[in-house]
Write a structure and sequence with these properties.
By secondary structure, the protein is of the alpha+beta class. Helix content is 39%, strand content 25%. One of its GO terms (cellular component) is cytosol.
Length: 339
């Protein structure tokens, strides 16, 4: 019988940021073929802590502690179906950890689930990174991202682009060029500290109060884009905003970045009007009234999720904007972000 007071052989900590402001999203997909994406990795992070024990300790081989859900349960490695948290279970299966160990994986994040900020990618990236310490050799950052992507696409059979996994692996401000799905290059955008700090000060992330859920709309958009082909105008318009965002950040041009964000949101709406929900439109309207220079409906868009705002130079105007958004709808919530 396991002694719960026994100290682990080792404790492995891993963390990965969520993703906001994904200009060029939708072009990092199998039906787009090739893509250009700008995104920003930010706090709140996903935290993973592995407590590793010898197999002979008498403990269950794999234990998952999903703190945000208040659930702790043992995973059956021989099971032919998923249990309560398929993403966590599939990631553990994918990593094929040595049979010499058993472990408990604690997973926690301050980011709400379903916020359209790549939280699931951050979870799988952080867990892959931790489990990699229990396998021979080490994965490169790109290999970590591709492994996390494969969990969602190959094991769970989900639609998934590659940008979220890359952003969570590398963090920071990124320009991604996908040349052959899912293979991509990533360039981290290095800017002076003054530009970095000013961007951080101006950003706001507004959660729209409910988990993102627009799979039927997304399926219709995917069918249409598949028929139009990878070089159609709708996808080219999105790719262009990634280039504009990259160039604006290098110049320290916040109005230029804001224009690219807003242009991307308009291009999302051209894919399907319902990708820009009434709640998102209301947040954008309030932001515009308080001098914000840009807004991006995060992720693919649709009901729920979140909006990234790029505020103007006035800190008091940003605070007034956040207050009015909360007064408009108590379920709307500002999530503090840090680069």
């Amino acid at each position: 019988m396991a002694d719960d007071r026994a100290k682990p052989l080792r404790v492995i900590n891993s963390a990965a940021p969520i993703r906001i402001c994904d200009n060029g999203g939708w072009t990092d997909t199998w039906f787009a073929g090739h893509g250009k994406i700008f995104n920003i990795g930010v706090y709140p992070i996903v935290e993973v802590q592995l407590e590793v024990y010898p197999l002979e300790s008498g403990r269950e081989r794999f234990v998952i502690h999903a703190e945000n859900f208040g659930e702790r349960y043992a995973l059956d490695p021989a099971a032919d179906s998923w249990d309560r948290h398929p993403l966590l279970e599939a990631t553990i299966r994918k990593m094929n950890v040595s049979e010499d160990y058993c472990f408990q994986a604690n997973i926690f994040s301050e980011a709400p689930s379903g916020a359209s900020t790549g939280t699931s990618a951050a979870v799988s990236v952080a867990l892959v990174g931790a489990l990699d310490c229990l396998t021979p050799g080490r994965l490169s950052p790109h290999e970590v991202a591709y492994t996390a992507h494969s969990v969602e696409v190959d094991l769970l059979k989900l639609q998934s682009g590659i940008q979220d996994q890359l952003c969570s692996t590398f963090g920071g401000i990124n320009y991604i060029e996908m040349f052959d799905y899912p293979k991509a290059t990533l360039s981290q955008i290095r800017v002076p500290d003054s530009t970095w700090w000013e961007l951080e000060r101006r950003l706001a992330l507004i959660y729209l109060g409910r988990s993102h859920d627009s799979s039927k709309i997304h399926e219709r958009v995917i069918r249409e884009l598949e028929g139009l082909g990878p070089d159609c105008r709708k996808l080219e318009d999105l790719r262009r905003t990634a280039e504009l965002s990259r160039d604006a950040v290098y110049r320290g041009d916040f109005r230029g970045l804001g224009n690219a964000m807003s242009e991307n949101t308009v291009a999302q709406g051209r894919l399907h009007a319902e990708l820009i929900s009434a709640q998102a439109q209301k947040v954008i309207e309030i932001a515009r009234g308080h001098g914000a220079v840009g807004w991006k409906v995060n992720g693919a868009g649709g009901e729920g999720g979140s909006v990234t705002l790029l505020c103007g130079p006035s800190s008091s105007a940003k605070r007034a904007l956040i207050r009015e958004i909360g007064q408009e709808n108590p379920s709307f919530r500002n999530i503090p972000v840090y680069l």
